[in-house]
User: Fold this.
Amino acid sequence: MVIMTESAQNLELINILKNKTMGLVREPEGVDFIVNSGPLTKKEQEALSNFIKADKAKRLKKLSTKKELGKRKASTTKRKTTA
Assistant:
């Protein structure tokens, strides 16, 4: 039996969020996953909240950069002149 501490659970959650690989986890034969989810401490809540805010800002920045690149490509194609 594998028992994870709260800090190990939090690290696992952060790794899952970073990798964005939410999927089906199959229990290996002879191993039981036990999740003991209790309330988060203030420190843990703050760490998770900061991570989510930073990740959201990073994704929005990446998205806005892609939009700007798309606009630049579109504007250069319109400038073709025929002479």
In short: The longest strand covers residues 2-3. The two ends are 78 Å apart (CA to CA). The helical segments are 6-19, 42-78.
